[in-house]
Amino acid sequence: MLIIGLTGSIATGKSTVALILSSPPHSLPLIDADLLARQAVRPGTYAYNSIVKYFNPTTPDLLLPTSSSSVDNPDENEGRGRPLNRAALGRRVFGTTPSRIRDRKVLNSIVHPAVQLLMLQSILYYHFRGNWAVVLDIPLLYESGLDIFCGAIIVVAVSSPEVQMQRLQARDRGLSSEEAKDRVSSQMEVREKVGRCKERGERGLVIWNDGGREELRNQVSGAVKRLESGRGFWWLLWLWGSPFVALVVVGWEVWKGWRAKKRWEGAKRGKEV
Description:
The chain is α/β, with parallel strands linked by helices.
C-alpha cells in the first residue's frame, strides 16, 4: 500500500485537496492528523493530562468554561475534565519568540507520539482492507519527521505569501494581522516544503493552488494518475498476502525518504555557506 503524505502551509488549500482525494472518483482513504490530534487530547487521555500539567499554571483560560449541558461536553460529565481551549493554547504556542518556540516544542512532544500511534492503527486497518493507497493529511509532515515514512508526498502551495495571508484572514475572521502572521511564521515556509518535495523526483508532487477549483481538480487528478501507474492488482495482492515482502517494501520506501531528506539538507547547507 502506498502511503501518500499530504501537506502544505496554513491557508494554501490543503484541506480542499484532501476533500478531492477522498471523494469520487478517487475515493482514497484519508487519515486526518488534525482529527486524530483532537482525539489524542480528549479529557482523560495521557496527552490531555500532560498538557494541563505543563500549561495550566501559566494559562488561566487553557480549559473551556464548565458546560451547562451533558450534550455539550459528555467527557466533563463523566469526570474526565473540561476540554482544552484550542484558541488559548494557540495564542500560547504560535509565534517566533523564544518562549513560544519552546512551548510549541513541548506541546508537539506531547501530542505527536499520541497522534502517531493512532495513525499507525489506521494505516494497518486500510492495509488489511486491501486499499492501494492511503492519504496522510499532516500539516506538519516535514516538521514532525514523518515524511520519510511516506512513499509519495503531495505539497499544496501558493506562489504568493500575500495570497496566503489574505486567505487565512478570510477563513478565520477573528484573527488580527499580527496573529495571522504568527501562525504563518510558526510553520515551515512553503518554498522550503516545495523544495523538499521535489527531491522525491516522480514521487514528489507540487500542486499550485493559485487558480480556481476546476484547475485544482485537474491537478489532483493528474497527480493521482501518476501515483497509480505501475501499481497493478497482482502487485497489491502480493503485498497484502505477504507481510514479509510488505515490510521489505516499507523499509525501502523509508530509506528513499531518508535519502531525499539528506539530499535536501545538504543542498540547503550549501546555499547557506
